[in-house]
Amino acid sequence: MIRLRITLLDKPGALSELTRLIAEHRVNIVDTLYNLQADPAETTDVYPARPEMGRALDARLAAIADEISQGAKKPKKGGTGAN
């Protein structure tokens, strides 16, 4: 397992592009949740203690993944529908 910290530009589509790349490479993401104010070094995973927040974030990520996968299936303008 590796740990990545990624800084994205504050522009529309930056996170979408990152998640597209993650999906393209079929990478598994392990659920972790950190309180960056109280634990800036990210040493304590609070996901087990905050399941309601974890579920809310999981739902948001699933919606993003669905949106990306639907967008990937759209044919390009003038295309035949095969990507």
Describe this structure in words.
It contains two helices and no strands. It has a domain at 23-71. Helix content is 40%, strand content 0%. Helix 1 packs across helix 2. The protein has 83 residues and is an all-alpha fold. The longest helix has 22 residues, at 51-72. The protein is globular, with a radius of gyration of 16 Å.
Q: Give the SSE order as H and E letters.
A: HH
Low-confidence parts? none
Report the sheet-strand fraction.
under 5%
- Annotation field: number of helices: 2
* pLDDT averaged over residues: 78
Gyration radius over CA: 16 Å
The major beta sheet can be summarized as:
none
Shape: globular
Number of separate strands: 0
Secondary structural class? mainly alpha
- Cα-to-Cα separation, first versus last residue: 31 Å
Provide a concise account of the structure shown.
With 83 residues, the chain is mostly helical. 40% of the residues lie in helices and 0% in strands. It has a domain of 49 residues.
SSE layout and pairing:
Layout: H1 14-24, H2 51-72
Keywords for this structure?
83 residues; 2 helices; mainly alpha
